[in-house]
Specification:
about 120 residues, 4-stranded antiparallel beta sheet, 11 strands, mainly beta, globular, 7-stranded mixed beta sheet
């Protein structure tokens, strides 16, 4: 069982930047970031897969958010720039231990989740 621990959330102002981290207890095939705003469904943001860190991203965060992974440290990062109040949400790290078929943008494809970290963006 993979354990994931997120960190880096907090309260920021609109236009600010923030970087989240997610430490995995072991090596994983894929890792991703999702978020869930109050009253809304969990939303896919970005993912990396394989040793080459092939990236998947949602159109909603294109050019503002970036994902990276330090494979040697089993750590995933989410760099968020130009944050807006609609970015207020709990941000979750997800992982899939081994390769498998399926949609990398779907939450059900992942088999491990972190506890989430709150990001609040004030206007």
């Amino acid at each position: 069982q993979v354990q994931l621990v997120e960190s880096g959330g907090g309260l920021v102002q609109a236009g600010d930047s923030l970087r989240l981290s997610c430490k995995a207890s072991t090596r994983t095939y894929a890792m991703a970031w999702f978020r869930q705003a109050p009253g809304k469904e969990r939303e896919f943001l970005l993912a990396v897969t394989g040793s080459a860190n092939y990236r998947y991203q949602a159109d909603s965060v294109k050019d503002r958010f970036a994902i990276s992974r330090a494979n040697a440290e089993n750590t995933l990062y989410l760099q968020m720039n130009s944050l807006e109040p609609d970015g207020t949400a709990v941000y979750y790290c997800a992982a899939k231990r081994n390769f498998g078929e399926g949609n990398r943008k779907e939450s059900v494809w992942y088999d491990a989740w972190g506890q989430g970290t709150q990001v609040t963006v004030s206007s």
